[in-house]
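Saturday, quiet lab. Running sequence design on the structure tokens for the scaffold JK sent over.
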């Protein structure tokens, strides 16, 4: 059993998960590998949250040697002195910078970084990989207690490492990610500012205001970046484009015309270098889960990356429609075609010969 030192929630003996005193195990029945994988410098990093919010669980990052899985993995637990703090990110894998640091966002859970061992619920984390996995820096919103008590956590989408061209002299290297109340956090990767009475990060932008019922209205997706622009789709909202330059996001955004249901969409951008940008996004509301209701085909949209003029949308029914939707699907563009994973098939869109 993989364990870390700690005094937090331990295994559930009723399901065969237990550990010695002073050790916190990963309990396979309670954990769920939510985000995508990260391949970085010969290591495959896997992040975890819970299976259906059944406790006890923790957020984990586990790194395996890609060329030899029999080697002992490196481990990181977000709440070794408490519980929860899952890494959800709506399917998005951990992000990484050119220095080999990993970035993840944790959800609701215990937060008290001053304890030994520390707990990092509702936090953006910068993890060093030079020797195992360790927290180099972090940011936690000043209203963490409110977010935690209402299940309005950050980490409902993934983090994006922005290119230096989006930064400024004072804030050259940036990170961005959102939360369940519709806020985007723009953070200096070299000074993430930790936890303070008032947030001291570079900027906060409200994409979609939410004061109640935020579980169905926030950012359950990951933004895309292309040529000085951020593209984001919140739940029940439209694709929005924000210009970003000199470490500042300009408001108001340019807004497209189509509304996306739960869980919003993580857009992807294709282009010919710096021209002919197309933003692709999938309306996967009819994914058959509690939020989506009955299953129905996913609908693929394409927009001009500059104007957000709609270029294409796939039919919602018929032989040309995609397969039934799954949550958090992200379109993949390669060799002139767009690939979309669905419940029963890999749907492929492209020009007819």
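Result came back. Writing it out in full:
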């Amino acid at each position: 059993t993989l364990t870390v030192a700690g005094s937090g929630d331990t295994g559930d003996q009723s399901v065969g998960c237990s550990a010695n005193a002073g050790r916190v195990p990963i309990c396979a029945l309670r954990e769920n590998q939510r985000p995508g994988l990260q391949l970085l410098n010969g290591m495959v990093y896997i992040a975890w949250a819970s299976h259906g919010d059944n406790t006890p669980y923790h957020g984990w990052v586990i790194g395996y040697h890609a060329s030899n899985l029999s080697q002992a993995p490196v481990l990181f637990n977000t709440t070794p002195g408490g519980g929860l703090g899952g890494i959800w990110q709506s399917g998005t894998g951990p992000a990484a910078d050119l220095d080999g640091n990993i970035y993840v966002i944790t959800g609701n859970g215990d937060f008290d970084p001053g304890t030994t061992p520390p707990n990092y619920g509702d936090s953006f984390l910068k993890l060093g990989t030079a020797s195992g996995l360790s927290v180099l820096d972090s940011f936690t919103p000043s209203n963490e207690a409110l977010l935690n008590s209402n299940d309005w956590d950050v980490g409902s989408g993934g983090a994006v490492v922005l290119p230096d061209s989006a930064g400024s002299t004072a804030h050259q290297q940036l990170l961005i990610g959102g939360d369940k109340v519709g806020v985007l956090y723009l953070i200096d990767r070299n000074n993430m500012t930790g936890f303070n009475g008032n947030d001291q990060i570079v900027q906060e932008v409200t994409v979609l205001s939410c004061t109640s019922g935020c579980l169905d209205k926030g950012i359950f997706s990951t933004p895309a970046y292309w040529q000085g622009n951020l593209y984001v789709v919140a739940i029940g909202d439209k694709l929005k484009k924000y210009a970003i330059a000199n470490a500042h996001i300009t408001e108001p955004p340019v807004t497209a015309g189509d509304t996306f249901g739960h869980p919003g969409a993580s857009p992807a951008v294709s282009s010919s270098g710096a021209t002919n940008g197309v933003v692709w996004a999938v309306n996967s509301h009819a994914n058959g889960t509690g939020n989506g209701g009955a299953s129905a085909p996913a609908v693929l949209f394409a927009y001009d990356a500059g104007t957000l003029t709609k270029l294409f949308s796939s039919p919602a029914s018929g032989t040309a429609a995609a397969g039934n939707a799954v949550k958090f699907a992200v379109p993949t563009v390669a060799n002139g075609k767009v690939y979309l994973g669905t419940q029963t098939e890999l749907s492929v869109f492209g020009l007819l010969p």
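Notes for JK: The CA atoms of residues 43 and 146 lie 36 Å apart. The first strand starts at residue 3 and ends at 5. Ask whether to fix the surface positions before the next round.
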